[in-house]
Amino acid sequence: MIHDHDRPVTAGGRRRVDLDAATALRLLGSVSLGRIVFTRRALPAVRPVDHVLDGGEVVVRTHAGADVSAYVRQGGGLGAVVAYEADSIDPDTRLGWSVVVTGYARLVTDPVELARYRAVLRPWVDQAMDQAIRVRPELVTGILLSADGGPGEG
Known about the structure:
The chain is an alpha+beta fold. It is 16% helix and 48% strand. The protein is built from 3 helices and 8 strands. Strands 3-4-5-8-7-6 form a 6-stranded antiparallel beta barrel. It is globular, with a radius of gyration of 17 Å.
């Protein structure tokens, strides 16, 4: 779809609306499962993970042997560039939203913070998750896919 930034694009009874960063982060914080995108052997890699939004940053749990942990560890001072995507799109109506956060990821090293994230982030796989990664957003984009004729439509 081609999108004119001044008005929504309609397709098949749906319209696409770009979300501002604050709304996009609020929606991302309303779900717990997303996908972290990073580089593995010079190619894109994607892993599903649980997340929590903390102070505007995305935090995920992982383990020391995970590819994403190794990638983030090599990131240096600013961290490693990653993207994080979460959505809530109905498979039948294809209505909902999708948010992508692009930014720098670093391992959480503070033991108190790490313990707090262990308490609030429940891994979705039965595996010891002894590390956490914090993603500081540099770019936040989101779209809302809604039905035509909603509130304000005339």
